[in-house]
């Protein structure tokens, strides 16, 4: 993991968006514990400042889409690792409001695109840079009851994959983290679908951070904090119709599940 001039995470300059709580805070803590200099971004200023103070980092509050310039300044001119982690749970069907679809697209996909646009010129000049996308298992599979979330997380996964295959030979590393349930505020607010589908196998945010660090050490693109997701993903690719029939059974179970 060659991210810093010293050749490790120690001293590397890291940005984590949506790091005021949940998975982002766990990523920020894990990088800081390994000696990285961390910029903590969150829309919620107080949360960003609290996590930054705890880990000796720098808070850069605001929308994740607009972090790169300010974060780069705070880190002395360069970002080594950028974690596009901020996300919206965005439940609903095709009937969800236009605003729900638009905000899901903006935060779950376009924030990643805008960050990459701002980061890539410097990274390609230097021949190094690491982009970490917190996607979701919903980006590989799907999430019942959450069309905007499932669709935009597929977009986030596609963008991470595209970045990696386009720039890998130019020194750019990309990781897509695809967990199922993680015990955070987002899971708490996911309602009965979260209770039925995600809560029984939920893990802690620190487990996601551990999985990312292991994936960085092994230079793995796809980070699966729930290893069983690999088999589901294979099953979907091998027999899409059968997989959809199975997911439809889950949908029916959810419809009968107490709200
Ligand atoms: N919790 C889960 O079960 C789960 C599972 C798979 C993937 N994920 C993904 O992990 C990521 C983090 O989610 P979490 O579970 O930690 O959620 P969370 O709600 O606990 O934390 C998300 C943080 O992002 C911040 N945020 C929201 N919009 C923002 C924006 N535009 N700019 C900056 N900050 C913003 C929020 O204020 C919040 O502090 C998301 O991308 C989510 O989709 C979560």
Class by helix and strand content? alpha/beta
Strand content: 5-15%
Number of helices: 10
Number of strands: 7
Rough shape? globular
The biggest beta sheet, please? 7 strands, parallel
Q: Kindly, what is the distance between the CA atoms of the first and last residues, rounded to a whole number of angstroms? A: 45 Å
Low-confidence stretches: none
Tell me the CATH topology.
Rossmann fold
Mean pLDDT: 95
Summarize the amount of helix as a percent range.
40-55%
**CATH architecture descriptor text:** 3-Layer(aba) Sandwich
The CATH superfamily appears as: NAD(P)-binding Rossmann-like Domain
**Number of structural units classed as domains:** 1
Helix-strand sequence: EHEHEHEHEHEHHHEHH
Broad CATH class: Alpha Beta
If strands are numbered along the chain, what order do they take across the biggest sheet?
3-2-1-4-5-6-7
Give the cofactors and ligands. nicotinamide-adenine-dinucleotide
Radius of gyration: 18 Å
Topology:
Layout (H helix, E strand, L loop, with lengths): L12 E4 L5 H12 L3 E4 L4 H11 L2 E2 L8 H7 L6 E4 L13 H29 L2 E6 L12 H21 L4 E6 L7 H4 L2 H8 L6 H13 L4 E2 L5 H10 L1 H16 L4
Helix pairs in contact: 1-8, 4-5, 9-10
Notes on the protein architecture:
By secondary structure, the chain is α/β, with parallel strands linked by helices. The chain has a single domain (13-230), classed as NAD(P)-binding Rossmann-like Domain (Rossmann fold). Helix content is 51%, strand content 11%. The chain has 10 helices and 7 strands. The chain has a 7-stranded parallel β-sheet, with helices on both faces. Helix 1 links the parallel strand 1 (13-16) and strand 2 (37-40). The longest helix is centred in the middle third of the chain and has 29 residues, at 98-126. It starts with 12 loop residues before the first strand and ends with a helix. The mean pLDDT is 95. The structure holds nicotinamide-adenine-dinucleotide (NAD). The site of nicotinamide-adenine-dinucleotide has 29 residues, from helix 1 and helix 6.
